[in-house]
Design goal:
Elements (H helix, E strand, L loop, with lengths): L1 E6 L4 H11 L4 E11 L4 E2 L6 H11 L3 E6 L5 H17 L4 E3 L6 H13 L3 E3 L7 H10 L3 E8 L14 H6 L13 E7 L11 E13 L2 E12 L1
Parallel strand pairs: 1-2, 1-5, 2-4, 5-6
Antiparallel strand pairs: 2-3, 7-8, 7-10, 9-10
């Protein structure tokens, strides 16, 4: 069996990737690894607190490796942390790093190049699976997740905190990837067949982080709206 570590974001894609790996007898899952912001002690991009991550891993029965990065890291600082992680994993006999990416070719190429530079191999358990099929499987397998971050340029505020279900899929705007693969939304997964118990949580305040965009029409301000998970 090939030893693998999965990059865990706490959301639906990494949950589906984990489910796939656990059902693949050619892999031995060693641990999860999560990128966390040093300043805010939260998962990068998803904004989920470290404590909630710990509760997830307890319910999964899996060890977690925390890769700490600076707030708003540049490529050099991120890649330094990543390659240091690869070295540590190699020393533990790990061969593969797995990711929940689905169909972004440029992101896959970046990950593969970086993983190879670190002396490991990359694998993508969900690669090229149609997003409608993934979402239908997610619901059919009784996974449960809510949106914890939305891109306000694409989705309105009422999409934040919504549970992923059949209505969610049906009502997403046509221009939105069903799995949010282009960063339209991010999720927090709190129940499903990979968990020994559902994760107890409450939702807290909403925090908007602006992102200025320059266009022919001038400068507009959109950004990401986060929902605090407590």
């Amino acid at each position: 069996m090939k030893k693998v570590v999965l990059f865990w974001s706490a959301g639906k894609d990494s949950a589906m990737a984990l489910h796939t790996i656990l059902n693949d007898q050619s892999f031995e899952l060693v641990a999860l690894v999560t990128t966390l912001n040093e300043e805010y002690k939260r998962i990068s991009m998803h904004g989920i607190p470290e404590r909630i991550l710990d509760l997830q891993c307890e319910a999964l029965g899996l060890p977690i490796i925390k890769m700490w990065v600076p707030n708003l890291p540049d490529n050099n600082s991120y890649e330094y942390c990543f390659l240091e992680l690869c070295q540590n994993l190699k020393e533990k006999g790990v061969e593969f790093l797995a990711f929940g990416d689905i169909h972004l070719e440029d992101l896959r190429k970046y990950r593969e190049d970086l993983v190879n530079q670190g002396g490991l191999k990359a694998c993508f358990p969900l690669w090229n699976v149609p997003t409608l099929k993934l979402m239908n499987n997610f619901i059919a397998n009784e996974f449960k997740a809510i949106t914890c971050c939305i891109n306000t340029k694409i989705l309105s505020a009422d999409w934040l905190g919504r549970q992923l279900d059949a209505n969610f899929i049906a009502e997403l705007p046509n221009e939105v990837d069903l799995c949010g693969e282009n960063g339209e939304y991010h999720t927090f997964c709190f129940a499903g067949p990979i968990f020994m118990n559902s994760i107890p949580y409450k939702t807290g305040e909403r925090v908007f982080k602006p992102l200025k965009i320059n266009s022919k029409e001038g400068e507009s301000e959109s950004g990401f709206l986060f929902l605090d998970i407590i």
